[in-house]
């Protein structure tokens, strides 16, 4: 990179950050826990991109478009996009996310994930780097930082691993004062590239206003001014290397992130469909076994064949694929299509409770009502809590069992002779064997689908959205526990 030297209005020598040469657009996502220095880092970047010298540094995150920083704030995502165009026309986009694990509590982790996802979806088309901003003086992975990493890992595909870097704040650019132990990070991030800086904008915040008013002679004799200029130069050199690293990264299309988000929801809906199929097959097996027993009673003249032939086929609930997203209830035995064509595209049940119209109170969205819990608010259609609902491209549909209907049709030509009844029993027993085979295949699908979910995200150890599937299993397990002869089905649920 070519280095440009200039002088600021106060006479101090300054170095302008050099934008990468291979890329004309750079988009970075900044993520960090509250108090990590992320907002100050954003402000520093903008100062340096504008070419501000050491005595011109000032807070930039609240300036308007006329001052050179066009701030765009989305009320739906609560993520701020800072687009900046360099004098030679290159574009630098900074997506600044809200501080994670803030004072409102870490229970809002999926809500933060939703905000980041929507910002990525709505604001940018590619991402060149995901920068985790961390207080370098903290020795190990804190609960809040662990939460931040979990949010990241559930959102990004594995392809983005090489685009993740770490900015350690509050330590010297040469690494002096860095206490953080990389071994405390998840395995996927232990070898991530990192940079250290002690942000001069923060370090000299109280001192800068006085220095701006000082004469050049006063600055020449001021030890603080000397320290500021040195720290400024070290910071610019560090960030130039960081920009070189970004220039070498392959740009990750945000389409991949969006597809991952939808894929996780799709796999979960297939998981639910599999557990539903196991329940249906188990029920049908019992119904057909009952027919086999009753055919024995017919042979012993204890009942007539017509009593069996005239039975109605039991109805079963199935999930039918749809083009739109729908809010459905997963509570055992509910099968309610609470809001067909909801199309909110919300992954988290808590977000459904805050946004979907079936959870409104007196026409007011639950998220706007103070002290209302988005997870426990009840659906106006089925009266179950939002936590028991999902937004799937699926709807419930009740249908007569085709397998049972086929079994009855096979009995229509049967006669009461021993040979005919034996043939009818053998035919139904074959259907039972086929059902048992289907159940076993469905059981194998469950761990396979869980593995598929785990393998999608950056780190399976942090695949937070698997919790949603676990909640799903718990719902179905309660139903199976209440049902007789469900030990086999419970065993496969318990394994997951």
Question: What would your notes on this structure say?
Answer:
With 496 residues, this protein is an alpha/beta fold. It has 2 domains: 4-250, Rossmann fold, CATH 3.40.50; 259-495, no CATH class. It contains 14 helices and 13 strands. The protein has helices at residues 38-49, 109-123, 143-155, 200-203, 208-213, 216-221, 223-248, 254-299, 305-309, 349-355, 402-411, 418-456, 466-481, 487-495, and strands at residues 4-7, 13-16, 25-32, 72-73, 80-85, 91-96, 126-127, 129-135, 164-169, 193-197, 252-253, 315-329, 389-400. The strands form 4 sheets. It has a 7-stranded mixed β-sheet, sandwiched between helices. Strands 1-2 form a two-stranded antiparallel ribbon. A hairpin with a 5-residue loop joins strand 5 and strand 6 (91-96). Helix 2 packs across helix 3 (143-155) and helix 8 runs antiparallel to helix 12 (418-456). The chain is elongated, with a radius of gyration of 31 Å. The two termini are 52 Å apart. The relative contact order is 0.11. The model is unreliable at 1-15, 62-77, 102-107 and 461-466 (pLDDT under 50).
- Quickly count the domains: 2
Question: Main sheet?
Answer: 7 strands, mixed
Given as residue ranges, the uncertain stretches (5+ residues, pLDDT < 50) are: 1-15, 62-77, 102-107, 461-466
- Would you list the SSEs in sequence order as H and E? EEEHEEEHEEHEEHHHHEHHEHEHHHH
Mean pLDDT score: 77
Helix content: 40-55%
| Number of E strands | 13
Radius of gyration: 31 Å
The percent range for strand residues is: 15-25%
SS class = alpha/beta
CATH domain topology of the largest domain: Rossmann fold
CATH-defined architecture of the largest domain: 3-Layer(aba) Sandwich
Shape: elongated
The CATH class of the largest domain turns out to be Alpha Beta
How many helical stretches?
A: 14
Query: Looking at the chains present, what oligomeric state does this protein adopt?
Result: single chain
End-to-end C-alpha gap? 52 Å
Major sheet: order of its strands? 4-5-6-3-8-9-10
